[in-house]
Amino acid sequence: MHPGSLVAAVARALHPVLPAAAGLTEDEVAASLAAPPDPTLGDFAFPCFKLAKALRKGPPQIAAEIAAGLADPAGMFSRAVATGPYVNLTLDLGRAAALVLPRLAAGEPARRPATGVRVMVEFSQPNTHKAFHVGHMRNLCLGDSLVRLLRVAGDDVVAANYLGDVGAHIAKCLWWYLDRLHDRTPPADRRGEWLGELYAAASNQLDTWEDQAQAGDVAAAAELQQAKARTSEILHRLEAREPEIMAVWQETREWSLEEFAEIYKWCDVGFDRVFFESEVDEPGLKLVAEFLDKGVFVVSNGAVGVVNDEVKHMPFFMLRKQDGTSLYSTKDLALARLKFEEYRIDRSIYVVDVRQSDHFRHVFLTLKKMGFYQAERCQHVPYEMVELPDGPMAGRKGNVVLFRSLRQQMTAHLRKTWFQQFEGQWSPEEIDAAERTVALGAIKYGMLNRDVNQKIVFDLAAWLNLDGNTGPYLQYTGARAGSILRECGEVGKALDPALLASEAAVQAVTASLKEPQERELLLALDRLPQTLAAAAEQLRPSIVCTYAFELCRTFNRFYNADNCRVKPSEGPLLQARLLLVHAFVHALRETLAVLGISVPRRM
């Protein structure tokens, strides 16, 4: 609960009126407050059910007595009415506005004090030698937003990435690159994407031979057997770190890394630490041997693993195959140990799709058996997949919307449908920057607006709509609010900075606020701190999206109301409404910032 919030103020005003026998603290009073189902009833409702036993009275009688005690006309409330077992409270709008608006208008952040908790959020995790596509964006946007939310919540957050730069997919890609290409010269500017095309071609060829072999095609069976032998050979040579194949691996790996870096820069996402599968595969095998010797792990049919009976449908968690090679599980345990030792983290969050839920349950159970106390604070944030209208995407099938194509399609759409009208009025640089900002806002909001347990169907045109529950709608509303302030400033109607420093001065102007749209906007602005806190606690950025959309709808009702025009206003009312708009601009920017979205100066 933010100390300057209306909930806190209402609790402070209400608490002294409650009978001492009720035994409620101020915080407990605040936790009981809720919005009435009908806004005409009041701004807050206090239920009296819990007081009945202690006071030996019916809740309606208790509510009536509390309402009578709040009849002071100079107090926080303009009205207190008992409605059945509830006390419905209507705030004095001027006093409430004076409490909330100055800190928001001044841009005071909702960041909480430092918790002293170090959290690592691992997200993105693309594979090198594969193309980065729209499906990867849900993980990227979700993880980045969690990093931002937890930092606002006061945690010391380490943003981490874990790149898959070893494994069978590498062997397939390099087989095609080394054996199937007549010309191995990569393109000049999309080499990472090109590697993804090679991987898709290799996977498709292997699948074709597999189908043909099963249908009795002897030649296809021979080709398949030869190809599998070759990919196995490449994989073993990579695992053995043979210099010749490692040189090819390092060169091609760098192509992917360069492309990833460019994508992350465009998306305004940064990482404090990038881990690689290649740095934990050997330590993973050593870890298995260590804990096998300690009796934590067991041998079963030549493989090594651990028995986690808590996962009833698959209790044996394999950590080393019969041939002595590692698995994802092996490397995840080594990675966890590396995180704990290198960063001394208290909490570890893994943003990985829902298909890996059983895997991470095993990982956390195993870490606990290995003696890592942090295992209790390891958490998997699962999310559903991004699909196209005609079904799931798969890189090996090649039916994906590649990131480069996504970016080009979105900016081209925005230029044609919106920003083309400003050519000749704005500089080319401003138009380019605005297109990038709006395209990125559309992607991020589209990826975060749905809860993690819901699938996303990617719809480019719908996400770019300026009218609806979209990122561009929010950005356009923010830009519109900014234009109000600029237009007022151009005619000498600017906010008096003294209002941000004097409580008496600000209350003198906010007393002029009377309209229901002003009240509605004030109440919406006040919900920002608790919204951010709830989203961080639940690890659900979709909560912020819902709030942002409702905040903008509320502002637009204020903006479009004839009785709330800002620029024609004069005197104290002008200053009060300028305070409201300044507060909205800063609140929306702070809200969108935790989603990784910014607002263009104008749209």
Automatic annotation (TrEMBL):
Coiled coil: none annotated. Residues 4-91 form the Arginyl tRNA synthetase N-terminal domain. GO terms for cellular component: cytoplasm. Its main location: cytoplasm. GO terms for molecular function: arginine-tRNA ligase activity; ATP binding. Keywords: Aminoacyl-tRNA synthetase, ATP-binding, Cytoplasm, Ligase, Nucleotide-binding, Protein biosynthesis. SMART domains: Arg_tRNA_synt_N, DALR_1. InterPro entries: Arg-tRNA-ligase (IPR001278), Arg-tRNA-synth_N (IPR005148), Arg-tRNA-synth_N_sf (IPR036695), ArgRS_core (IPR035684), DALR_anticod-bd (IPR008909), Rossmann-like_a/b/a_fold (IPR014729), tRNAsynth_Ia_anticodon-bd (IPR009080). This is Arginine--tRNA ligase. The lineage of its organism: Bacteria, Pseudomonadati, Myxococcota, Polyangia, Nannocystales.
